[in-house]
């Protein structure tokens, strides 16, 4: 039976206590597995080895990439983490699981990315043998995963995708389920990215296709599968709301995401492309911010701003300009993309999301509006920009920007444009497919939180009671089922 | 008639709903205008062109400026944004309008700065002609605005000035009015800066004169004009207060401003000057922080600290050292400036601001204490440092620091000192003049929020009712007139 | 007699008002002393002089160190500052005194570090004479403290140590006492660091020994002395608790500390070592984060997460990997260290801290769990890594990493390992000794807050009443005794 030990803490019965421990078992197991897999398969990248000092080169790489890496790092942990604190009873979970997922995915995706790249390379031996102090090689040249600055940036990008997915199901999953999602989503993502980048030779500097679109549609498919077609009831859950203070905490996330988006789009860009990424992304985001305010003002009841638009739609320009952020889209092109993205995203929150809910598609954070549709806009914009890319804008450097167009045997602009669309198509297919598979797994009763219905006696799956209208009967959007929660005001 | 739909949301009548839409009309119009003006008048700076790859140079500029640019960016959006959340019913507006204004000003001031610089240069043709794929020039060499890292930094500086102005009128203007202020303040600011920097050849590395002093006195003049000489009543408005939580949100802003001030002062400095900027600014701010605590402790009732001093006066050292931050003022000089600034700023909050209110000068955030007086201290300090600058401290490099003193025909130290004061004088004149003009425009009933007085029937200008003593009768310091506001505590 | 002027503000009698002013006297005196001491003893470092322009070198140093310095700066002011806001009635003090202490220590430790280094160097003349405009040297070559980027980073490291100490006594000291602690702790710290780094030639890249271990055990000794063996009552103080909102503010600090820890560990590392620092620290922290969630889930009642573990134990990996962060511990070694640190730290919060309280050792923030034990783990790990360091991992560069092993006369691995342990031993002795001395000084009635017991008439030392069970009778964990405190909710 549920017993309350205060206003916020509900005591679950022994069944649910034991069930909650499954999280420990899975995460501890995986974490110990990391030690073993890293010991066998990884090494520092050549530049970071002490044996063959490359101090100057290492220093140049740190000076150049590290500040942007840290910006991206802030986006992942502060940006996504606080953005999701808007639910007034789910702040600990939002920022806490965001932290957990990211720490988990960073380790896991370095491995998965490494193996996926190895698979595309027939696991070619690439690491130096180890040399003993007596000068003997103890280890033949072997395949290994070399860890450097780029691995860390890529790991943060992968974390972003899983966090976008998390946004779609925020408040409706438990930490055990999110560890399973993290484990399963990364291989799908790495597979899709290698197909898109290596096989289709698509460009996507800011990851709008391979990170944002992927994460969003994976999450939407996942949410659709686990929501049992009852999303309208979810959105009416009495815990699914904000307070003044939770909305302000959320703005901390928004602002840091907005600020550091140029670093996200440009962290791995070569120097002159990076310069364009910065200009294009700042302009697209600025235009998107103003547009989101304007359109929200136009369309909301009483023409009052709604925080959900300001927290999210202001960022859509960063996604929508991502794919083309290093291309010669010119400053006005960046501003135009920002206007389109801001408009579509606000429309998404006001018009499209309520409509999708009637089809059973529940999306707690509205990732479809912030990452899904803007990601598709980015992909289409990338295809158009690729079709238009020619001598006048790029001169000799066209092969630096579009690798497939380099040299005598390079493909032409139309072919590049088609490949861009192929990458979008494969992303939609793999992400939706992967989300459905993952959803079918995590909705298995083993992973679902078990508790008892208030007043009832028997242990049951709370999942079944997702949509109860009484706040006593739902575990959704509520920290108290997995956290010790202090009172709201300290009983002053 | 006003109808309440809960504790926080007041339903305005149709007149005010329609009026609120004017914001949409103006901001959407301006945003679309941006696309057109950018298409006609702007291009990437040469370094960011793909045609003529300058990868190494572009990379060096990004590595060198971008981390400082992002620090400044954080100051603008997180620093100013959260600093202003101290009003307990105005947090959404503070961080929201700060976001809106900055996104708007970044785009607008790149254009205005470009045209103003062009005007000083007789709109000399400076952009390369566009070349088609067939090798023909489709466009003669023409005047255009080249956008690079420095444009982005300058745009953020301009945003800072408008946000300082916003601080003086915080809670007393609506978003429509703030868009008008943003549109009008930037040309005044750019005009004044070109006069000061180009005509007077004044140095002002940290923008204490051209940004802080300008923004503060523009805002004070603006506030004086729109306040109808009733500022004492404003400061007694029942919404003009803080809570524990709003004061903590505000400290997020304070701390980020304090931390990144060396980047603000040094973002555009050449390398060795930048090194001095960092040392001088860190020392001035540290001394100012300790001094603000000490003086506040001395002067407050019961010798208890007041958050308003800690949130603001701790920062005054960054403003006061701005103009001289790259000069050889020596570490002890920087500390002394910090002590003076902290003392003056706390005195400003405790003694000077209440006194100014009796003259009808209302200043919600106390920008006079944080930006106005410290800016004037910086200007005077700059003049003294210029008068003292000679061979012993600067050697050969004096012309690098004070451009006007370079070469055989360079001016002498006394002349430089006079020019510094001339720049201060023109700044005070143009900012106060510009603020008065802008205030007269935005107090026109067209721009003022229209609603109805509670219990009354007729639509009226709320501006007229600014100073009503009942919280039901004022739109001031209250999010609810332009935002959907959730409850404070989620009715747990 | 105590009179209440509202819910939060207690009016102390004239005795306590006067006593509160002692803070002004000491801090103002010290701040003015800074001007004099800096004028006599400091100068810019050679690279920052305007006379001998080294623009290129200065630029390279700024580009390379400044972004990491700013990350460390964020950790000190945002990280530690907000981390300590978890006490629901002590948020202003937490973030405010953190700000004050850091601003104070930055100035003070540049001086103390400079004199301590001078003492190890027999105060050798190292500064250039000043040259007048007529070419005469007005000042013979003299000893001075040269201020550069490294001085600023070291000053922030010293601030970290004092803030860790502050964490152990959070809520139990007044600002006057904390100024005294800041003054006294820095010489002990600088002495210990010079012994460890210069005499013992110990390596400690991330300062786990000289900053974290030192600050923690200094603080624990200090807390033990001032707590009069009544720590169990402290932990039961009715103000010693959190709210949902104070816990979220605290997470802002946690996340920024976690993010920028690689910068803390690597800010002063040479380039290729810096590269390893980044990889090792990110991996250790990621593993520690996942482990802290897992172990907390295992050990807490009902297997629910507790915010105190998530806020703190997730960071222990950064401390524990600090000493070895630049060594060739390999990626799996970093992950293993993270797992050990996360486990020990959570165990510390759940099992060890309650046990220590019975010995009179009260530790408000649990710095023993976050900095103390992980610091000792780091020191032992460093000794093991030093013992294992050989040709195979380091090749020619071993002397770059372990200075004492360079050249023909270098020491061997075993000797280096012993020196590492010697540095730990001296750190424990000096920190605990220094903490006891400092505690005996600040518990003198002169420094203790004076007030009157409610209902009683006589002024008395509140220190004596630390452990009163009624919230009316204690000044502990309560802003109201030194701050004007607004209401919690604005009486909406």
Describe this structure in words.
The structure is a homotrimer of 492-residue chains. In chain A, the strands form 3 sheets. A two-stranded antiparallel sheet of chain A has the order 1-2. With 492 residues, the first copy, chain A, is mainly alpha-helical. In chain A, 62% of the residues lie in helices and 3% in strands. Chain A has helices at residues 14-41, 55-83, 91-120, 149-168, 175-199, 208-226, 231-235, 244-266, 271-299, 307-312, 316-320, 330-357, 367-388, 391-394, 398-401, 413-442; strands at 3-4, 10-11, 42-44, 145-147, 450-452, 459-461. In chain A, helix 2 (55-83) runs parallel beside helix 4 and helix 8 runs antiparallel to helix 9. Mean pLDDT of chain A is 89; it is low at 1-9 and 452-473. At the A-C interface, helix 1, strand 3, helix 2, helix 3 and helix 8 of A face helix 2, helix 8, helix 9, helix 12 and helix 14 of C.
């Amino acid at each position: 039976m549920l017993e309350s030990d205060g206003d916020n803490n509900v005591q679950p019965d022994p069944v649910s206590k034991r069930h909650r421990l499954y999280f420990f078992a899975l995460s501890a197991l995986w974490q110990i597995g990391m030690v073993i897999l890293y010991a066998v398969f990884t090494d520092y990248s050549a530049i970071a080895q002490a044996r063959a000092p490359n101090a100057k080169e290492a220093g140049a790489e740190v000076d150049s990439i590290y500040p942007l890496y840290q910006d991206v790092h802030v986006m992942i942990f502060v940006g996504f983490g606080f953005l999701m604190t808007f639910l007034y009873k789910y702040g600990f979970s939002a920022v806490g699981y965001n932290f957990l997922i990211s720490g988990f995915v960073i380790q896991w995706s370095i491995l998965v990315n490494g193996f996926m790249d190895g698979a595309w390379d027939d696991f070619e031996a690439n690491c130096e043998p180890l040399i003993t102090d007596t000068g003997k090689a103890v280890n033949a040249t072997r395949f290994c995963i070399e860890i450097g600055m780029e691995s860390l940036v890529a790991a943060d990008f992968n974390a972003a995708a899983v966090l976008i997915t998390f946004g779609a199901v925020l408040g409706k999953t438990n930490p055990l389920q999110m560890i399973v999602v993290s484990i399963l989503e990364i291989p799908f993502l790495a597979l899709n990215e290698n197909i898109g980048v290596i096989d289709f030779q698509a460009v996507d500097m800011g990851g709008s296709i391979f990170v944002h679109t992927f994460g969003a549609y994976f999450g939407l498919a996942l949410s659709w599968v686990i929501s049992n077609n009852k999303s309208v009831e979810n959105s009416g859950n009495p815990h699914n709301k904000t307070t003044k203070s939770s909305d302000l905490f959320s703005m901390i996330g928004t602002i840091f995401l907005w600020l550091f988006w140029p670093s996200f789009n440009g962290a791995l860009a070569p120097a002159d492309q990076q310069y364009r990424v910065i200009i294009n992304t700042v302009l697209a985001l600025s235009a998107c911010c103003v547009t989101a305010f304007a359109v929200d003002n136009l369309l909301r009841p009483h023409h009052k701003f709604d925080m959900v638009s300001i927290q999210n739609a202001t960022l859509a320009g960063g996604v929508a300009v991502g794919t083309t952020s290093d291309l010669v889209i010119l400053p006005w092109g960046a501003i135009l993309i920002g206007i389109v993205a801001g408009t579509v995203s606000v429309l998404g929150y006001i018009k499209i999301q309520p409509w999708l809910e009637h089809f059973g598609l529940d999306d707690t954070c509205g990732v479809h509006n912030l990452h899904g549709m803007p990601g598709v806009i980015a992909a289409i914009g990338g295809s158009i920009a690729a079709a238009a890319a020619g001598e006048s804008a790029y001169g000799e450097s066209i092969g630096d920007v579009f690798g497939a167009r380099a040299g005598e045997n390079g493909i032409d602009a139309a072919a590049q444009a088609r490949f861009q669309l192929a990458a979008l198509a494969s992303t939609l297919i793999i992400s939706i497919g992967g989300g459905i598979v993952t959803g079918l797994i995590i909705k298995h009763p083993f992973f679902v939180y078990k508790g008892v219905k208030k007043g009832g006696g028997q242990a049951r799956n709370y999942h079944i009671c997702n949509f109860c209208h009484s706040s006593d009967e739902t575990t959704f959007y509520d920290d108290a089922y997995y956290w010790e929660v202090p009172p709201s005001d300290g009983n002053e």
